[in-house]
Write a sequence for this structure.
């Protein structure tokens, strides 16, 4: 029995393109796209952070106490859990305070977030190294000496408040110190029955105010960055798991985002039902403070959702055209249900489990984008020609309807980048007050003689965001006098050689999954294997036309039927390959 290496062809490829590892195009390749476009780059950004090791349990020794005690750590918190700490005064006449340090960087701005609830005392002062802010829970006011910004917001109906103070550090020792107050006094005889409840202590350089809970270590997470590529700049997209191997070269058809104000969920065009929207609450997939928190209110009798006030209009063909809604979402206490709010019977209704990154019910799709962010999408066949309403609903748990679930005024989801487009999902397109169109990618190479001896072979590794049986992975053709299909074509369902030849079909693939195809052709035989499968052969006598010197990457030679996905690598051989070679070469 031969070893594995002997199953490879003896000849080397006459053309070898490695997009995944090189992250660049061969100098012979012509590439164009007349508009900007987005993709997840190899660059990673700080996605979330909390420098305080114990966000909820103030009984830990990391929190230094002076004339206060932690009476209990199992009190009801804003998120409904029993994790809030009760801080009580001692009877000593002095200040009543507790604090923790963290490592800071001079010149960097830090946002400090504290959730507080009265328990005999109704006010406290938050000290950092060089500034302070006083929060009065009765008057619901925040005053400051030296802070860059302060705010106080009521959370739910149980007396909790979210208190936020931001300051630029001047040294390397950050501080979060809480000092209880008796009215306006800070130095007084304490009462052992009085104090406050605290929860969700956070210090972060990201500017986010959504809590990253900690218990024993700081929180610091990075994620891939959704970058905007300039016009005519190729996009090499990377996976969300942080691995070094890229997804490859991204090739897409022209697409339009029909959803207006795609990242402004506070906009008046949104009909908000029993939810509140807080913009700039967290770091979005683009690495900026751009994600909005959609939180439920305290209504106990009905669902919490939002959808546009006006339908998106477009010339869809009823019963044939499809539409896709997509949005980037992250768990903040609730899961997501998304559908077409006008015609939910169109089939797109899906519940997404944002904690586990799974589809609970429905036919939607979910893709990881790093650090708990997912791009969730639903696709439906249109039953009306001009009405589209992306409907976003908070779900407590994983079932719907949940109309009897009481909102807690705290829990919700983080959202970024809504998109509505015809057919399948494409890369994210930012919009303002009008729809925006992204141009198609065009990628080709001329190298004579590419396939000019009538026989040969190739391999290609690729994925598709929506696996269409008719989408083209690559096509060879003549650079002069060309007509469609006069060379070798790999489409998602198989292989055909020359327009007059017969197709060698091996079936459609799975969306968002990489596959590798190996093919060979000569007079009397065209063969193909995918993912190490047994070879499928057709005994056609047709071979590529003379002068086949151009390779179209990710599209047909007329630029249509784009792959709408990634190509990792392409290898072309000047001689036909054996069935053993094909099976071996097609293994991922």
């Amino acid at each position: 029995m031969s070893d594995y290496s002997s199953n490879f062809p003896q000849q080397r490829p006459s053309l070898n393109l490695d997009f995944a590892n090189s992250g660049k195009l061969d100098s012979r390749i012509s590439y164009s796209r007349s508009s900007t476009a987005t993709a997840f780059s190899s660059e990673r950004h700080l996605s979330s952070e909390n420098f305080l090791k114990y966000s909820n349990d103030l009984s830990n020794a990391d929190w230094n106490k002076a004339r206060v005690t932690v009476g209990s750590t199992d009190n009801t918190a804003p998120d409904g859990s029993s994790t809030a700490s009760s801080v009580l005064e001692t009877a000593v006449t002095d200040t009543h305070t507790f604090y923790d340090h963290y490592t800071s960087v001079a010149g960097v701005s830090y946002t400090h977030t504290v959730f507080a609830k009265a328990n005999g005392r109704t006010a406290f002062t938050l000290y950092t190294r060089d500034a302070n802010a006083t929060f009065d829970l009765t008057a619901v006011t925040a005053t400051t000496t030296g802070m860059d910004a302060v705010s106080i917001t009521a959370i739910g109906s149980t007396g909790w408040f979210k208190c936020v103070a931001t300051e630029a550090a001047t040294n390397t020792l950050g501080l979060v110190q809480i000092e209880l107050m008796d009215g306006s006094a800070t130095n007084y005889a304490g009462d052992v029955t009085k104090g406050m409840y605290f929860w969700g202590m956070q210090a972060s350089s990201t500017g986010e105010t959504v809590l990253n809970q900690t218990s024993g270590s700081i929180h610091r997470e990075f994620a891939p960055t959704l970058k905007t590529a300039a016009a005519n700049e190729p996009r090499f997209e990377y996976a969300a798991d942080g691995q070094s191997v890229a997804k490859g070269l991204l090739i897409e058809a022209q697409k339009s985002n029909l959803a207006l104000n795609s990242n402004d969920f506070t906009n008046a065009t949104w009909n908000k039902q029993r939810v509140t929207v807080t913009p700039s609450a967290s770091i979005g997939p683009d690495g900026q403070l751009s994600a909005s928190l959609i939180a439920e209110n305290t209504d106990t009798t009905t669902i919490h959702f939002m959808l546009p006030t006006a339908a998106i209009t477009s010339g869809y063909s009823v019963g044939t055209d499809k539409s896709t809604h997509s949005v980037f979402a992250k768990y903040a206490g609730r899961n997501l249900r998304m559908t077409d709010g006008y015609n939910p019977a169109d089939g797109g209704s899906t519940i997404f489990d944002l904690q586990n990154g799974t589809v609970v019910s429905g036919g939607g799709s979910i893709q990881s984008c790093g650090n708990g962010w997912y791009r969730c999408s639903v696709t439906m066949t249109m039953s009306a020609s001009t009405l589209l309403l992306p409907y976003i609903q908070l779900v407590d748990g994983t079932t719907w309807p949940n109309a009897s679930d009481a909102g807690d005024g705290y829990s919700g989801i983080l959202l970024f980048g809504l998109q509505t487009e015809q057919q399948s999902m494409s890369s994210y397109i930012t919009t303002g007050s009008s729809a925006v169109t992204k141009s198609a990618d065009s990628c080709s190479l001329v190298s004579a003689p590419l396939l000019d001896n009538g026989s040969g072979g190739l391999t290609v590794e690729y994925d598709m965001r929506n696996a269409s049986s008719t989408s083209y992975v690559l096509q060879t053709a003549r650079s002069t006098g060309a007509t469609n299909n006069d060379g070798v074509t790999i489409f998602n369902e198989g292989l055909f050689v020359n327009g007059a030849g017969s197709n060698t079909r091996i079936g459609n693939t799975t969306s968002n999954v990489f596959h590798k195809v190996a093919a060979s052709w000569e007079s009397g035989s065209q063969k193909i294997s995918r993912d190490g499968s047994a070879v499928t052969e057709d005994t056609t006598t047709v071979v590529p036309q003379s002068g086949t010197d151009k390779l179209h990457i990710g599209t047909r030679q007329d630029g249509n039927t784009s792959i709408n996905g990634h190509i990792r690598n392409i290898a072309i051989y000047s001689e036909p390959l054996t069935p053993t070679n094909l099976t071996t070469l097609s293994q991922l």
Remarks:
- The chain has a mean pLDDT of 90.
- The helical segments are 19-22, 579-585.
